[in-house]
Design a protein that fits this description.
- The chain is 59% helix and 10% strand.
- It has a domain of 185 residues: Arc Repressor Mutant, subunit A, CATH 1.10.10.10.
- The protein has 22 helices and 14 strands.
- The N and C termini lie far apart (72 Å).
- The protein is an alpha+beta fold and 506 residues long.
- The protein is globular and about 75 Å long.
Length: 506
Amino acid sequence: MSEQVTSREPDGNLHESEADSAGNLPPLYRFGPFELDTRIRALRRDGATLPLQPQPYRALLLLVAGHGRTITRGDFVSALWAPGTHVDFERGIISAIRRLREVLDEDADAPRFIRTVPGHGYRFVADVHTGAVANGAGRATADHESRDARQSGLAVRHWRIGFVATGLAGALIAAVGLLRMEAESGTSPAEVVLRPGVAEHLVAARFHAYRGGLDGYRAAAKAYEAALDKQPDLASAWVGLAESQAALGIWFELPNDEVLPRARQAARRALALDPGLAEAHAVAGLLALYYDWDWPRAAESIEYALDLDPTSASASSWRAAVHTVRGDHDEAITAALDALLLNPLSESVAAGAGWTYLYAGRYQDAIRHCRQTYEIAPGHPRTKTCLIHGYEALGQATEEFEQLGDYALATLGAERFATLAANGPEAANREYWDILFQMYAADGSRPWRTAVFGALANRPEEAFLWLESAYEARAPQLVYLQVDPRFEYLRPDPRFARLAARIGLS
C-alpha cells in the first residue's frame, strides 16, 4: 500500500495530495466545463476534445494537480523539460501559459483558472474535482493521439521518478514527469545539448539571479562562470554572466573596475556567439544605459532586441529603465508591466516595476505593488526599500518606520533601537538616516548611497559633496538623478542642474 503525501492548506487543515508517493494521478480532473483526462493526456470541454500540445498539457496538469498553490518557475522547469535540456525556460513557460489561456478562453486580467502570482509563478484558482473516466470515454481520442505521435516522430516515454516525498511540489513534479515526452529524432533548433554538469550550474544561476540581492547576484555570477568553464559556447550563459556582473554595480555599487570589465567581455562574447540572440542585444543596451550614459545607443540596442524577440522580459525591463531616465513615465510603466507579464516568476522584475512607479511619482501605486510583491516574496531588498521610500515620499512617517524597523534593529542592536523608537517615528526616521549616512561616509566606498542617506538626513551640503564623488566614480545609479524622489528638495539648487547636465540628463 502506497504512502500518501499530505500538505498543509492555507486554512491550516491537512489534505491528501492528488499525487501519491508512487507518482500516480487521478484518472480525471474536472473544473468548470472542462475535464482533464490523465490516462490519455486529453483536455475536453463539454465532451469535445480540445487540441493541446504536450508541453502546455504538462503545464496544465501541474497547475490543476496543485490547485490553490503557487507553482514556481523551478516546478515548471522540472516538469516540462528532460534533464540536460537547455532552452529559454522563461519563454517556454510563458508560451505554455499563453496557450492554456487561449484554449481555456481566459482573460489574463480577469482569470477564472490561472492567476499570475507576480514575482513568483502561477496558481490554479478554480475549484477542481477528481473522479473516474466513464467506460469507453476518450477511446477515439486516444487512437487519434497515438496516430499523431507516430506521424510526428515522437515516442512517449514514461519516466518513473524515484523520490523521497518531502512536500507536495516534489510529488507533483514526479507525477507530471511520468508523462514527459521526448523527441527521438534529435535536438530541436531551440535546444542546445549540454555537457555533463552544465545544467545544474545553469539552474542554480537562474535561481540566484531571480532571488536577487548582493549574495544572489554573486552566486549567480559564480554559477554562470562554472557553466561556462564546462561549455564556453553557451551564448545565453554569457548573457546571464553579463547581467549578474552589471547588477552588482548597479544595485550594490560594487566598483566599476571590479565588475564592468567582465560584464563587457561577457556581453561581447554573447553577441559574437549568437548575433540573433535578443537578450545579448538587451544586455548591451543595459551597459550603455547605466555605465556609458549613452541613452540613444541604449535605446537602439534594446529596441532591436525587442524586434528580434517581443517576448523578451529582460529587454522590456531595460526599455522601462530607458524611458524612466528620459522622464517618459507612462511608457516606462507600460514596459515594466510588460516585463512582469512576460516573466512573473522573477522577483527582480517585480521589484523593478515598483521602482518604476516610484520614479514616476506614483507613490501609492508603488506602495500597493511592492506590498503585494513583498507578501509573496518576502526578503527581496529592492522591494523592501521601494516600499520604505514610497512611504517616505508621502510623508507617512509611522509606516516608514514600521518598514525600517527590521533594518534599524539589525544595524543598531536592541537597546539602541529602543532608544531610537522612543523619539517617535518622524524623529526616529531622520536619526536612522543620519546614522546610516555617517556609517557610509566613514566607509567611503559607496558614494551614491552615501549621497542618498545624506539627502534623507537633511544634510544637503554633504549630499552634494557625495553626489560629486558618485559622478567621479561614474556610479550607475546617477542615471536616475532627475527622477529620484529622495533628491526632490535639492533640485532648485543650481548645482543640481549643472550635475544633471554633465551626466547628460536634461
